[in-house]
């Protein structure tokens, strides 16, 4: 694990009109790791991701990328940093094939014509680099793919574009057991290849199977960010449902120190 987090959020506030949805949120995301972002319905996970991806402007707080302060005011800013979000409802076009989808809006050209051989080769290399063997033909229309294959293509697309941080919104929500296992393997491989991965999930089995750290949001507050090996399933459920864990001595981390430690006040504030 790299000592410098790829992304740090500090003191993020976000309101919609009179409703404060995020309060003083801190989050630290490391390259080479999967950080699971958990929280009940309405806890603020999607809002936080939309702030990170530049869709929602924040009201307060700061972002650091590779230790440097950055401004993320638009999706273009986020994409420029290498932040890519793969949404659950997958922005893939059914009537296009896999290569066309992976290069949609960023097609390679040779003069005025599309450079199909290069795009096909780059798509094949990306899929091979991720050991993706479930896709048989790159010229298959996306409409004919299974849910797991679609997830795979959407994730590979993020990798193709040299993303540094890939945020996955419930990637296994609609999948069966075998496809879930394949997608989780792919999620792990992304991190093993050095990317930072944020995984939003309601599924504790997925979270414990694949994550290195767990960040728990409760009513818009980050109530804990811990190593997955330092917390039990029951404690995570308690954080999600009650905003606290009964386990005293749970080691939590914060974005501000970046060294795996947390100031004492944050610990008491984080585990109520
Ligand atoms: N554009 C908006 N305007 C007003 N309120 C909003 C808006 N977007 C989200 N909210 C509110 O913010 C809160 C957090 O919503 P958010 O979708 O971020 O939660 P979530 O943790 O992603 O939930 P879920 O797991 O159900 O997707 C909710 O109370 C929601 O109603």
From TrEMBL:
Xref: InterPro entries: AAA+_ATPase, ABC_carbohydrate_import_ATPase, ABC_transporter-like_ATP-bd, P-loop_NTPase
UniProt key word Transferase: no
Keywords of the record: ATP-binding, Nucleotide-binding
Alphabetized GO MF terms: ATP binding; ATP hydrolysis activity
Keyword Acyltransferase set for record: no
Bias type Polar residues, positions: 251-265
Protein name: Sugar ABC transporter ATP-binding protein
Native organism: Micromonospora orduensis
């Amino acid at each position: 694990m790299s000592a410098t987090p790829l992304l740090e959020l500090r003191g993020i506030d976000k309101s919609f009109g009179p409703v404060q949805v995020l309060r003083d949120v801190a989050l630290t995301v490391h390259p080479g790791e999967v950080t699971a972002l958990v929280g009940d319905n309405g806890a603020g996970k999607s809002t936080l991701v939309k702030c990170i991806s530049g869709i929602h402007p924040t009201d307060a707080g700061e972002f650091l990328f590779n230790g440097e302060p950055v401004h993320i005011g638009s999706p273009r800013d986020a994409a420029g940093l290498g932040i890519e979000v793969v949404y659950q409802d997958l922005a893939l076009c059914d009537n296009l094939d896999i290569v066309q989808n992976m290069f949609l809006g960023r097609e390679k050209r040779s003069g005025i014509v599309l450079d199909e051989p290069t795009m096909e080769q780059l798509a094949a290399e990306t899929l091979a680099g991720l050991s993706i063997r479930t896709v048989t033909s790159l010229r298959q229309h996306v409409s004919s793919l299974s849910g797991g294959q679609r997830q795979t293509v959407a994730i590979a697309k993020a990798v193709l574009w040299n993303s540094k941080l890939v945020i996955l919104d419930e990637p296994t929500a609609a999948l069966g057991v075998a496809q879930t296992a394949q997608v989780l393997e792919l999620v792990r491989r992304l991190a093993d290849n050095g990317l930072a991965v944020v995984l939003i999930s309601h599924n504790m089995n997925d979270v414990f199977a694949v994550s290195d750290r767990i960040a728990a949001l409760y009513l818009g507050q980050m109530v804990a960010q811990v190593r997955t090996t330092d917390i039990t399933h029951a404690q995570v459920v308690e954080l999600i449902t009650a905003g606290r864990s009964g386990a005293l001595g749970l080691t939590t981390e914060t974005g501000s120190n970046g060294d795996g430690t947390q100031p004492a006040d944050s610990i008491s504030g984080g585990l109520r």
